[in-house]
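ok new one. same drill as before - structure tokens go in, u give me an amino acid for every spot. 262 of them this time. try not to just spam alanines like last time pls lmao
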């Protein structure tokens, strides 16, 4: 498989506080990665480093095998082949749905006929047909999120970054949108790096979970692997596994349960 993203011993500190401590991770083409962890674990900082919004203090970030960021230099965000969907959608309020989706393609000076065809295709995929001439304030939250996703997909990025993309939606819309997004990304073969604090959202979308704790990766694996064999008590608690056993052997040693000593 082709590696889209490689994170090699990446560290980041703010003053004396270490936020990330030597993170290693590889993301393959077409893979959906969900990074899960409590507030303050470093997941948002990692996302910003990949996007080019911050520079690592040590280590390297590679995109398609080429160094995009290190302590000695950074590739500009717009040159990374990455698009990002934010929590608050970040749509241009004075532009129509069509203009928002077409924005990146127009900046890339694509042919107008190709732009119209791409917008029509994305509008159909994301159930935005008939809304192309509306402004963002005239849309529901779910519709605005679909426009943001369509805009990010329009330029066919190597990697899609999702920063808590469903946190502003109500519960019913969250369930609907996470199912739609997982289906869409799989259909298009999009490589996704998805940050969330919601285990259900991560489970419904991810091929692989990355569980973070205190600036480090606690566990990686499929959702099923992480659920059945949590690497630590904190991973089990984060994933909602509420039952824990503590037992003592005859020699006084602890007993491992579920693949980890609890």
């Amino acid at each position: 498989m082709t590696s889209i993203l490689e994170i090699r011993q990446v560290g980041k500190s703010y003053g004396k506080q270490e936020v990330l401590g030597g993170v290693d991770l590889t993301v393959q083409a077409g893979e959906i990665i969900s990074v899960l962890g409590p507030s303050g674990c470093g997941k948002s900082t990692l996302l910003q480093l990949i996007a080019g919004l911050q520079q690592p203090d040590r280590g390297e970030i590679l995109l398609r095998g080429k160094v995009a960021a290190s302590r000695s230099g950074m590739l500009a965000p717009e040159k990374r082949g990455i698009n990002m969907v934010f929590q608050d959608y970040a749509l241009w309020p004075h532009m129509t749905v069509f203009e928002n989706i077409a924005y990146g393609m127009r900046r890339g000076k694509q042919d107008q006929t190709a732009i119209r065809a791409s917008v029509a295709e994305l509008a159909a995929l994301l159930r935005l047909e008939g809304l192309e001439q509306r402004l963002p304030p005239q849309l529901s939250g779910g519709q605005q999120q679909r426009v943001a996703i369509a805009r990010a997909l329009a330029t066919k990025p190597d990697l899609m970054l999702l920063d808590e993309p469903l946190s502003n939606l109500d519960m019913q819309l969250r369930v609907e949108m996470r199912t739609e997004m997982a289906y869409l990304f799989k259909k298009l073969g999009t490589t996704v790096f998805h940050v969330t604090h919601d285990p259900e959202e991560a489970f419904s979308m991810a091929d692989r979970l990355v569980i973070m704790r205190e600036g480090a990766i606690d566990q990686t694996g499929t959702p099923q692997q992480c659920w059945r064999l949590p690497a630590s008590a904190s991973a089990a608690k984060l994933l909602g596994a509420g039952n824990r056993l503590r037992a003592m052997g005859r020699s006084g040693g602890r007993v491992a349960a579920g693949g980890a000593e609890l």
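The CA atoms of residues 105 and 155 lie 6 Å apart. and btw DSSP finds eight helices and 13 strands in the chain.
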